[in-house]
Design brief:
alpha/beta; Rossmann fold; SIR2/SIRT2 'Small Domain'; 2 domains; two-stranded antiparallel ribbon; 11 helices
Length: 262
């Protein structure tokens, strides 16, 4: 009798053979670093302040309350450190340079872990922006814009705002080019980001889901697990040791990354 493959074996084979890997992460990735998720029992949406100060108009409605809430979120992010999940994904990208990291998180921990050219779909708490004159110079502080004097919110996507279309286009292109698309710590229900794994599947990509709770995508996944470190750390090392596709350049990024840097 042939022994069935476990998720580690399947993930290893998929990562080993893939020329283009995309990892799409959500709030669950940063939970072990002390960053609250959104929908858990103790998540951000259970906090009235989070609901009250997450709309694009809230800065003008209540500048003091808005600034206090987002300063607290920034303080939590700055005190946090990358956990083994972040480090595993950064290591995977180092071992397989064509890997593209896409995140819904605004904490910046993937970049802090060593992730390169991370596509931050919802922006970052570690930057600020002036919606009046377009100034985006950092570091982000809750002060008025040094260029025009307007109030400056954090550079995150609020309710009532569109995602940065350049970042979204890069993410969509990366998903469509992916041989393997990995969903990590995301419910994958918030659109338009939730369309990314479906775009990968529609172009023949294989799906790996790493989430503590079952996902609607699991039925389409080639490998599922609730343990990111258990899967990704050994899998990325074995993928490198066994074979790196000869056509993969060690210095050439995916086409979407080349467009973004040009």
């Amino acid at each position: 009798m042939t022994e069935s493959k476990g998720p580690l074996d399947t993930a290893t084979e998929l990562l080993r053979d893939a020329r283009r890997i995309v990892v799409f992460s959500g709030a669950g990735l940063s939970k072990a670093s002390g960053i609250p998720t959104y929908r858990d029992a103790d998540g951000l949406w259970m906090n009235q302040s989070a609901v009250q100060f997450s709309h694009v108009d809230d800065l003008e409605r209540d500048p003091a309350g808005f600034s206090k809430f987002w300063a607290q979120r920034l303080a939590v992010a700055e005190a946090a450190r990358p956990n083994p999940g972040h480090l595993a994904l950064a290591q995977l990208q180092r071992l397989r340079p064509s890997t593209r990291l896409i995140t819904q998180n605004v904490d910046g921990l993937l970049t802090l872990a060593g992730g390169m050219d991370v596509l931050e779909l919802h922006g970052s708490l570690r930057r600020w922006r002036c919606d009046h004159c377009g100034n985006r110079r950092g570091p982000w502080l809750f002060k008025r814009c040094t260029r025009c004097g307007s109030r400056a919110p954090p550079d995150v996507v609020m309710f009532g705002e569109m995602l940065n279309q350049g970042v979204l286009l890069d993410a969509q292109t990366s998903a469509q080019e992916a041989d393997v698309f990995v969903v990590v710590g995301s419910t994958a229900v918030v659109h338009p980001a939730a369309d990314l794994p479906l775009q990968a599947l529609s172009r023949g990509g294989r799906l790996i889901t790493l989430n503590m709770e079952p996902l609607h995508l699991d039925t389409s996944a080639s490998a599922c697990s609730g343990a990111l470190r258990k899967i990704c750390c050994p899998a990325c090392w074995w993928a490198w040791a066994n074979r790196a596709p000869p056509s993969e350049s060690r210095t050439t990024p995916p086409s979407s990354a080349r467009r973004r840097s040009s």
